[in-house]
Here is the input.
Amino acid sequence: MNHSRTPRNYAQGTTNLLKRLAFVLVLLLGSNLAFAQGFESAKQIFESPKLKTAITGHRTVAILPFDAKITYRKQPKGFNAEANRDQEETMSKSIQASLYTFLLRKADNYSVSFQDVDKTNILLKKAGLYGKLDQATRDEVAKALGVDAVLGGRFETEQTKTEGAAIASAVLFGGLGGKTGTGSLFLTLNDGNDGELLWRFFKTMDDGITSSTDDLVERMMRKVSRNFPYAKN
Here is the structure.
């Protein structure tokens, strides 16, 4: 008996293999999306009882440099603490700038104006507060900036994969598996008169190789837009 495979047999085998691969990819994609949605759903919002009354007197709000923290589940080879601090400072400025750009782009949706972040940072440096925001109260910061309220926050990310490994897995799975870490983002609003916390937003999110600070802010603000204190009704 001739056991050699005909072209038709090969074609049928190839078709079945492709179907099985497609099925596996669909399962992987579904699992990835389900996990992402579950992870991204973790959020908390706090509103002070004084919020609505306080913001009626606000005209100008400053966006402060974010407190950024980058850690690693497994510290990479050749880790350089100074370089890591430089990266954190870059991320701090980038998130601040991205948030300002987002709010400026949708300025008509808000009841206040936002101070230019370059001006904010210059005034902070003149007041000796740049990089030392944890050494001053929020009302002291607002006074130095000449604003009615300050919007600040913190972004913490734990890297679970090297960028190279993430890119390799993304290529292997056609865009799947590119997640490089997880993060948590806090956004806070403090009154300029007494420094009291008026509003806080907390969000957990994943961080992929294609994620920029613009992407992070866009995702965050999509979640917070309905609850943002200055959003016009």
